[in-house]
Design goal:
The protein contains one helix and 21 strands. The chain is mainly beta.
């Protein structure tokens, strides 16, 4: 009867084991060894699921940097949110300031200029439109201010040329990046992205400062 090794739990076949079962056992051993192998990267991971104690070695160690990064929280890795970025359905992100959660894009579109306040309740949704206000006539707008049309069209508009809005609401462009002229203001059009809380995000911390 086969036995297990102490540290990795590898299967040690016996000469009496069937050939087919021995091959399956050895295949399982290879998977275990591969999972336990040291990993190298230039930075902490931004994709995949990771378990506490997972360790990534810095493939470019240098004085003043770290030997690597270690997982201190089991979860999923994702890139940090960035402003005015196109996101596709199913893409995932984490907030720029860790809150222990990651978020899945449930409506393809663009992030706004300012990062939204991401909810931490499971499955909660949020539109990526922080600081947006409804368009107003005869108003001074600064660059990067964000508005909605008075009638919702699923888009937000970013001020790219500061100025004063017109007396009447413009006909809003409905293609990403297209410009709407409004008095002396110019607005760029973006489809609204929407996020849903999707679970626990992983956390990697650096270790081994190289002096």
């Amino acid at each position: 009867m086969s036995t297990l090794t102490t540290r990795l739990g590898l299967i040690k076949p016996e000469h009496s084991d069937e050939t087919h079962q021995t091959i399956l056992d050895l295949s399982q051993n290879f998977d275990i060894i591969d999972a336990a192998a040291e990993r190298y990267a230039p930075a902490p991971p931004i994709s995949g699921n990771h378990t506490i104690r997972d360790r990534i070695w810095n493939e470019r160690p240098a004085v003043g940097s770290y030997a690597g990064w270690i997982c201190t929280r089991t979860g999923r890795a994702a890139p940090a949110w960035t402003g005015l970025t196109s996101y596709s359905l199913g893409q995932t992100i984490v907030p720029t300031a860790d809150n222990g959660h990651y978020y899945e894009c449930i409506q393809a579109g663009y992030s706004a200029v300012q990062e939204p306040t991401f909810p931490v309740t499971s499955g909660t949704e949020v539109e990526d439109t922080k600081a947006a206000t409804t368009w107003t006539a005869n108003k001074a707008y600064a660059q990067n201010e964000v508005v909605f049309p008075t009638i919702d069209n699923g888009r937000f508009y970013v001020c790219t040329v500061a100025g004063d809005s017109g007396m009447f609401e413009p006909v809003w462009a409905t293609s990403n990046g297209y410009i709407t002229n409004d008095g002396t203001v110019a607005w760029s059009s973006y489809r609204i992205a929407k996020w849903r809380e999707a679970g626990v995000s992983t956390m990697f911390r650096p270790f081994g400062k190289i002096e």
